[in-house]
Write a structure and sequence with these properties.
about 525 residues; alpha+beta; eight-stranded mixed β-sheet; two-stranded antiparallel ribbon; 18 helices; about 65% helix
Length: about 525
């Protein structure tokens, strides 16, 4: 059974190619005809009218045949038979599209070469000088038209090229590189027209029968044609290089704005296509890096993540820092887990921790760790803070009221302490974490246990109030001293006075704004 032939490009692309290539060739052929018949010197002819008529008839007939043959032959360059192996089928389609402009230009080059031979043979019976002049003009015109057609077809096929390169980005150069293409386009847009002008001048010098007026017309006609074609080829070649670079430049601007979903369409088989593909690979890597960094920041806190990224290497150990610690622990979490379904318990914990994280971050703190149904927040490490004790106390006040208002079905004890502690990386280079160790941590944990049995469920150490600024101290009331479990010295207890805190939570403003 014969395999079906299919197109590798859509019909709108085929139509655009047909119109662009046919129009370019017809215009080019018309220019060559005018130059050959009425501008360039042809030498003495016995019957110029007959010669011109024969050439015009031959031109019309050949143009009609060439357009039809070129359309059918060129279209066939974009068809291929189905192959049972999908990988082979894909590779064939890949090559058909990528080499489409070159294959299409080859068809036109053959037709123009045949035209040069045909018209040279037709005119040789009257004058070898005329035959050579016509052949030279036809070849020069054909080379220029083929170059312009290549640029047009390459641009029209960009979307199709992008489609095949999306499945297989160019890992190596599959078409002539930028340098080679630039040289070729220089030859097409500059060298070839100038050569045509030089040949006309040589002919005038050799035969010496070209009047000054006719020589001026020849120079103006060929020079003007060279300028127009040179501009067209140069602009087309420049756009072929600039468009991919501009696409990458626009993508880079998006990446600079933090848009890591930026991608550029790969539609070039040269180094420019590798540049486009490399940009997409780079952005994909940056997006993955940013995603990992975001996940890492969510796990350990953004400040710790940035500190680890800036460090460049893992260093275990710590340093003494003046910090404040806020510890919060649910009351009756064991009963909660035994009386409710696991999904409901997780939902309650997530709502609880959501309020804790939001409140702590609003006051410049950092969640060091979650311990089951408890959370440890640190102020003043890893990023220094101007008033860690005041921030921790303000966070504790607001957190106590927010939990009472937003989560009335759960209760939590909150303890705050402040002082010197060791902050740094603890563990092994293979697995470590940034944490804070010291007396303020232990004291805050013990205050949290005690806070579960006092009204308001919030307690702070007097030492934390002593280190806070005056405004925050004014919102707390010092109480009696007590000896906390596991400690050798008594701790002076402090509780928030509750002034304006509940109203501030209801109105969504910070308590400080109410004072």
């Amino acid at each position: 059974m014969a395999r079906r032939r299919q197109w590798v490009i859509s019909w709108p692309v085929r139509l655009a190619l047909l119109v662009a290539v046919v129009v370019a060739n017809i215009v080019g052929a018309g220019v060559v005809l005018v130059l050959s018949a009425w501008v360039l010197p042809n030498g003495p002819l016995a019957d110029p009218a007959t010669v011109r008529l024969v050439n015009l008839v031959a031109f019309g007939c050949y143009l009609l045949v060439a357009v039809l043959v070129g359309a059918v032959w060129g279209a066939g360059r974009f068809r291929m038979r189905d192959h049972p192996d999908l990988e082979v089928q894909r590779r064939r389609e890949h090559r058909r599209v990528l080499y489409g402009p070159l294959r299409l230009t080859t068809v036109q080059a053959v037709l123009w070469l045949l035209a040069a031979l045909l018209f040279a043979g037709i005119n040789a019976r009257w004058s070898w000088r005329l035959a050579i002049s016509v052949a030279e003009t036809t070849l020069v015109g054909g080379i220029i038209v083929c170059g312009l057609s290549y640029l047009l077809s390459e641009r029209i096929l960009r979307r199709s090229t992008a489609r095949v390169l999306a499945a297989q980005p160019p890992r190596r150069r599959v078409l002539p590189g930028i340098v080679a293409r630039s040289l070729v386009f220089w030859v097409l847009g500059t060298a070839v027209p100038v050569i045509g002008l030089l040949l006309a001048a040589v002919s005038a010098l050799v035969y010496g029968d070209v009047p000054a007026a006719q020589l001026a017309v020849i120079v103006l006609s060929i020079g003007g044609t060279a300028l127009v074609t040179g501009v067209l080829v140069t602009v087309g070649a420049a756009r072929a290089v600039a468009d991919p670079v501009n696409a990458v430049r626009r993508g880079m601007r998006r990446v600079e704005r933090g848009e890591f979903d930026a991608r550029v369409t790969v539609y070039d088989g040269t180094e420019l296509g590798q540049l486009q593909s490399g940009f997409n690979t780079m952005v994909a890597g940056l997006a993955e890096r940013e995603r990992i960094r975001d996940l890492f920041g969510r796990q350990v806190g953004r400040d710790v993540a940035e500190r680890a990224a800036d460090a460049g290497e893992v260093r275990l150990g710590g340093e003494v820092r003046s910090v404040a610690v806020l510890f919060v622990d649910l009351v009756g979490s064991t009963a909660l887990a035994s009386q409710r379904p696991a999904e409901e318990v997780v939902a309650v914990l997530n709502r609880f921790f959501g309020v804790v994280v939001e409140t702590v971050e609003e006051h410049g703190g950092w969640i060091n760790k979650f311990q089951g149904d408890a959370a440890l927040a640190v102020f003043g490490a890893p990023a220094p803070a101007p008033d860690p004790a005041g921030s921790a106390l303000a966070a504790a006040r607001r957190l106590g009221v927010r939990l009472a208002v937003e989560l009335p079905d759960v209760e939590a004890g909150i303890g705050v302490s402040a002082g010197d502690a060791v902050a740094g990386n603890l563990g092994d280079p293979r697995r470590y974490e940034y944490t804070v160790i010291g007396d303020p941590v232990n004291e805050a944990a013990r205050l949290t246990e005690l806070a579960k049995s006092v009204p308001g469920r919030v307690l702070a150490a007097g030492s934390a109030l002593a280190q806070a600024d005056g405004r925050e101290r004014g919102r707390w009331t010092l109480g009696e001293e007590t000896l906390l479990r596991g400690r050798g010295e008594p701790t002076r207890l402090a509780t928030p006075d509750g002034r304006d805190d509940r109203a501030a939570v209801r109105t969504g403003t910070a308590p400080e704004e109410q004072g």
